Amino acid sequence: MITAIRYEEMQILLNDLFTRYGYDFTEYSKASLQRRIQRLFALDKFPSFAEFRHRLQHDPQYFRRFVEEVTVNVTEMLRDPSFYRTLRTTILPVLATYPFIRIWHAGCSTGEEVYSMAILLKEAGLLHKSLLYGTDINPLVIEKARKGIFPVSQMQKYSENYIQSGGIKDFSSYYTANYHLAKFDSSLAGKMIFSTHNLVSDFSFNEFQLILCRNVLIYFERGLQAKVFKIFDYSLENFGYLALGAKESLRFSPIADGYKQIGKEKIWRKVHETG
Amino acid sequence: MRRAKLIILGGSAGSLQVILGIISAIGRDLPLPVLIVIHRNVDFESSLEDLLSSRTRATIKEVEEKEPILPGTVYLAPADYHVLIEKDQTFSLDYSEKVHFSRPSIDVTFRSAADVYDKKLVCVLLSGGNADGVDGMLYVKERGGVVVAQDPDTADVPYMPQHAIARMAVDFVVPAEEMPAFIKGLAYLPPA
User: Fold this and answer.
1) Which sequence positions of B are flagged as catalytic?
2) Which alpha helices (DSSP H) does A124-240 contain, by range?
3) Confidence (pTM)
4) B84 near B112, Cβ under 8 Å?
5) Are residues A59 and A108 in the same domain?
6) CA 20 to 30 Å from A153, out of A66, A225, B73, B115?
7) How many helices (H) and strands (E) does chain B have?
8) Which residues of chain B form beta strands (DSSP E)?
9) Where do the domains of chain B lie?
């Protein structure tokens, strides 16, 4: 049987990482985190917990790998097409009334959602006056997001999502395929700013009309979720929108009272003024 | 044998009829929670919950992240998310990579539940043509949990339970038609 990282050992590890590198994973959902750590431990064939711990404490490069592997970086373009259709039909017409549009994709991973949004904005004739911020804790995925190059094998799926989201163009007009890679139009990336940002420890850095944070909060415990919701609340303009993942909700959060859900999609509008 | 803290039903192709049979036998007074992890198409998401609800008096609900796991409830893993269980007996959802081409993956849930419930866990592997669930079941077995496989001779797609039986000493091999009564029997055992 493979040596397993016990729950208590994981706690020791998390305390180490906080002390040594300032990265705080102690309020992440433990079941998922333990599974990811266990996976890395097995993948890199450590003979014991002690050696794993020692390596993490003394090798910053390996800690970087830890962050890359332990955080979940699964994403896709135009995931949940009905969500994007609501953005097109209900949210973008409101954003269109602003002279300048600022959007924050918090926990954007490799950037597929940011490119999806840029396509929507372009089709609504709004991209020229928009700025899309993409942030993630993981520097490696941010580098990938900047490049805007995704596997060609995904394009059929994305094209289907695009059509279901209400797209009427030829999806392939947005990228150039080269062997197994698809490079997205640089006019899209021209409106994006990518940066590392840790939702656990970093603060609000701007004011936005729309914040998207989809399938990120499921990895946080309730207490940390509440903290992050407060950062979002502080970062949203009055009457701005907050969009969450299909299985996430504002319902149990401390900011719920100041928000109104838009239809049945996981989109809420800020209806109170930031105090 | 004493009552477990959780029963998990894992199934893939051909398992829906067996699952419907099992939940039809379960009443509103179900003294423990049951979790169903079934491979399914994202596009038919809502109808499965309705279908299950129409066959039982127990409460059927889709798993929500961070909700406490309560007796009397039959939980359904949502399409396209893994279901994990926290030490404080609440659910977590996870959108990480598919396992055996599956999300939800039966392996992922079996393992996570075994870490929390140890020997107070019953895992049932039903009909299916996928390798998912067998590794997780082995882990449950190592942690002292009870593992049950549908009799492959009575499975529409025998591959999944067949592999479980080949890989480990499964505690019970139960024919499809006897599964409802068997699971009901486990659910209503005297408490531990």
Assistant:
1) 12, 39, 132
2) 139-147, 155-164, 186-189, 222-235
3) 0.94
4) yes
5) no
6) A66
7) 6, 9
8) 6-11, 34-38, 59-62, 73-76, 82-85, 91-94, 121-125, 146-150, 172-174
9) 6-187
pLDDT lower than 70: segments of chain A: 1-3, 274-275
A150 and A24 both lie in a single domain: no
Category of A80 on φ-ψ map: left (φ > 0), alpha (ψ -120 to 50) or beta: left
Note whether A54 and A118 are same-domain residues.
no
Token pair in block for residue A181: 């890679």
Of A35, A221, A245, the CB nearest to B84: A35
If pLDDT is split at 50, 70 and 90, which confidence band does B41 have? low
User: Could you say which of A30, A74, A248 has the minimum Cβ distance to residue B96?
Assistant: A74
B192 token code pair: 């531990």
ipTM: 0.92
* Same domain as A131, residue A95: yes
- pLDDT, tens digit, 9 for 90 and up, residues A193-240: 999 999 999 999 999 999 999 999 999 999 999 999 999 999 999 999
- Contact between residue A211 and residue A243 where contact means Cβ atoms under 8 Å apart: yes
Question: Which domain covers residue A21, as residue numbers?
Answer: 7-70
Query: How many Å apart are CA A20 and CA A60, to the nearest integer?
Result: 9
User: Chain B residue closest to A74 (CA)?
Assistant: B96
- CATH no. of B6-187: 3.40.50.180
